[in-house]
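Encode chain A's predicted structure.
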Amino acid sequence: MTAHHGAGHRHGHQHTDIDWEVMAAQLETNGEIQLPVLRRVADRLRQLFAPEKEVRRILDVGSGPGVMTCVFAEAFPAAEVVAVDGAPGLLDAALARAGRLGLDGRVTVRHAELPAALDDLGTADLVWSSKAVHHLGDQQAALNGLAGLLRPGGVLAVAEGGLPSRYLPRDIGIGRPGIQARFDAVLEDWFTVMRADLPGSVGVVEDWPAMLGRAGLSGTGGFTLLLDLPAPLDPAARAFLYTHLTRLRDTAGEALDVEDHATLDVLLDPGAAEGILRRPDAFLLSATTVYAGVHGVR
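Encoded structure for chain A:
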């Protein structure tokens, strides 16, 4: 299991194969754009621990290039933080990031293919997983395994679900209005195909607090934090959206009609005034939803 998604799959005209090591730079850029939210997430999670609880070890399961790993290392200065991922190149990126931030010795890495390697990770006071559980076939079993890593009083937190990002007005002046809603539908269909093709895929009502409760945790609940970057966007955010739309075009296949494909091509034209790299009305509004529960009574 990698930073945000798992093994690749194919189904019909849609391609769900992903080479996560190739995407390392994009994943790190995405994480850096989200840093204000990620730091607030760490602060909220710290509040879930009893005052006397010492957080000595943190597992970032599906860490990718280690952006959140390093956030945890900064937020919990007494803790060892372990980046866990199935892609060695992403773990190398996590170590490099930790070195640049002066966190050498505080951040370690563990190569692990999940869920098989869960039992080899050791215990922790905080187990974090972002957009990774949904790439394991049996999500409830994955949560059960992650909860089993917690020390008494420990916290399991997963970033799952949430809302699609918004970044364009409803009418962008080219093509049919409402293209983002149609993009969302393509991605929802891609996600359904991906889930169905996973080994051992099991359907479950994705009530994450209830699922965490079934994993044996108490005080389960969730919170949502917003990233609100108004127009006009800076170059880094525009580059992120350009890469996002490029991947969407590669994913969509025949799921978008000819007119929407033409509109997408304009959005991805670096020289077009209407393109995502130049248009003045592009913004970024995204929601990160986190669900958490505590091992035992606080």
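The mean pLDDT is 91.
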